[in-house]
């Protein structure tokens, strides 16, 4: 990794939240880095600190101690699309772009890349869940981010739409090569999508494993099963192997 260009550098980061007289340490002296163009999946149980780390990287929160270095251009796709209901689809995608003659054209091109050219003038309320999430993805990618943050973006989708979105994310990340961090509970999803899977347990980084299988990947096979077992054991889940 030392020969690669670093996109993210987290050094000695601790994040704590106070609730009354109690203090909850969400992240405990975390050291973490990502290369430019690398796809990292962050897995862990609920409350392990995954979303807290993503919020620090996005600039939505700041650490109590330590340093976070990230690229200037970074975008986030959340589990909920968070579209502005009073704006048409293309206008939602154009949010955050410099106003000018090219903003609508850029938005339309981005919507074409996610397969929504026919819906550019629709209102968000008329979209399916999968369509709305595609709009959110187009809105994130239209700015050509150096860091793309994905916070459980497929969690509310049905199984078929989830698979379609996974394929789309793979294609677009391969094309534009942002450093990408996916927060997910789904170990299988992490293995299918990521170059590296990082396990977070109780606010501490546990293990990190490289995923070297060629893309496109399928669930199954000896290497997949072995890697899945390693990750599940780190999460405290018995695999019966």
Automatic annotation (TrEMBL):
Keywords: ATP-binding, Cell membrane, Membrane, Nucleotide-binding, Translocase, Transport. This is Unannotated protein. PANTHER family: ALIPHATIC SULFONATES IMPORT ATP-BINDING PROTEIN SSUB, TAURINE IMPORT ATP-BINDING PROTEIN-RELATED. InterPro entries: AAA+_ATPase, ABC_transporter-like_ATP-bd, ABC_transporter-like_CS, ABC_transporter_ATP-bind, P-loop_NTPase. GO terms for molecular function: ATP binding; ATP hydrolysis activity. Pfam families: ABC_tran. PROSITE patterns: ABC_TRANSPORTER_1, ABC_TRANSPORTER_2. The lineage of its organism: unclassified sequences, metagenomes, ecological metagenomes. Residues 8-227 form the ABC transporter domain.
């Amino acid at each position: 990794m030392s020969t690669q260009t670093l996109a993210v550098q987290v050094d000695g980061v601790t994040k704590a939240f106070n609730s009354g007289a109690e203090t909850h340490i969400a992240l405990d002296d975390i050291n973490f880095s990502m290369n430019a163009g690398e796809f990292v999946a962050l897995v862990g149980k609920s409350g392990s600190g995954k979303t807290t780390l993503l919020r620090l990287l996005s600039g939505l929160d700041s650490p109590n101690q330590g340093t976070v270095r990230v690229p200037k251009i970074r975008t986030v796709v959340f589990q909920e699309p968070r579209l502005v209901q009073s704006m048409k689809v293309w206008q939602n995608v154009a949010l955050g772009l410099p106003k000018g003659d090219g903003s609508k054209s850029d938005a339309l091109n981005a919507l074409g890349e996610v397969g929504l050219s026919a819906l550019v003038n629709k209102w968000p309320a008329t979209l399916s869940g999968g369509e709305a999430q595609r709009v959110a993805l187009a809105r994130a990618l239209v700015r050509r981010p150096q860091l793309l943050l994905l916070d459980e973006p497929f969690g509310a989708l049905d199984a078929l739409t989830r698979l379609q979105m996974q394929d789309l994310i793979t294609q677009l990340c391969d094309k534009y090569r942002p450093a990408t961090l996916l927060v997910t509970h789904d170990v299988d999803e992490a293995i299918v999508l990521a170059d590296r899977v990082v396990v977070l347990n109780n606010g501490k980084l546990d293990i990190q494993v490289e995923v070297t299988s060629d893309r496109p990947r399928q669930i199954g096979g000896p290497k997949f099963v072995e890697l899945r077992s390693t990750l599940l054991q780190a999460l405290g889940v018995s695999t019966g192997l």
